[in-house]
Amino acid sequence: MLDIKKLGVIGLGKMGQAIVAGMLKKQVITPNQLMGCDASEDIRNRVSESLGIQMVSDAKKLASACDVLLLAVKPHHIKMVCDDIYDSVHPNQLVISVAAAISTAYMEKRLPKDVPVIRVMPNTPALINQGMSVLCQGKSVRKHHMALAMEMFEAVGETASVDEKMMDAVTAISGSGPAYMFLMLEAMADAGLKMGLPKPLATQLAAQTMLGSAKLVMESGEMPVKLKDDVTTPAGTTIEGLVEFENNGFRSTVINAVLKAKERSEQLSQND
Ligand SMILES: NC(=O)c1ccc[n+]([C@@H]2O[C@H](COP(=O)([O-])OP(=O)(O)OC[C@H]3O[C@@H](n4cnc5c(N)ncnc54)[C@H](OP(=O)(O)O)[C@@H]3O)[C@@H](O)[C@H]2O)c1
User: Fold this and answer.
1) Which of 38, 70, 122, 240 has the fewest Cβ atoms within 10 angstroms?
2) pTM (predicted TM-score)
3) Can you tell me the mean pLDDT for 214-232?
4) What is the Cα gyration radius of the chain?
5) Which domains does the chain have, with CATH numbers?
């Protein structure tokens, strides 16, 4: 159970709701320890009904009632939220943001001096508690702040922490990564369709294969290259497919796509 009085969540869209629902499901927090704020009345009503937490429309009111604040609004709304809560925030609180490409320095500049700020890059599998959340810390963050934030995000999947200079690379791999995986799955399912398999079955084959392969990497501790070799017999079917991938530059396409995403994340982070 999180050792806090109250966690205030500002922005209860897809990501905010996923994190709150995950924490409630894992029982690391109780509804009484939560307060939410969203600009949309519809969301406020739906969330208070489905998750049983108190919802308010005034971020300032929430900020003065909570010791930890989680900002889950779109990146372009972060400045407005910081301005809104400025007078209600102090260094004994902790502010956590999941906004993509918003640095801790950007937040620190817009909040009172010495307020601890943690930045997190989660991803959409957090919606089913299978997320990958990577945390980095601002200059006033102490060990116990990071431990608390880690515990929160462990409720929606795996966690890791990095130096903030690695966050653009993290964004390009695990933040954008689900879209790349879905593209691969869609292409595999289309190939199944072309060979006459029904679409639901082709999608199931591709998705379970991706899931199982990812789990095999995580659970065996083996490098992907070794596991790939285990599937590939001399003059067999797999090597035919792999050669076609190589002929079309699959590996370099994937590497370059991730590097492009990193570059874009760097550009978007130039907002300080
Ligand atoms: N979804 C992802 O894959 C993903 C992955 C990693 C990180 N993130 C980050 O997570 C954050 C949230 O993304 P999301 O996909 O959950 O967005 P979302 O579904 O649009 O949710 C954001 C919510 O915040 C509300 N809001 C806007 N301004 C507000 C304010 N001043 N006070 C209170 N509530 C406010 C929005 O209301 P209105 O719609 O009425 O404006 C909306 O309900 C983003 O910063 C994003 O970069 C998302």
Assistant:
1) 240
2) 0.95
3) 98
4) 21
5) 7-164 (3.40.50.720), 175-269 (1.10.3730.10)
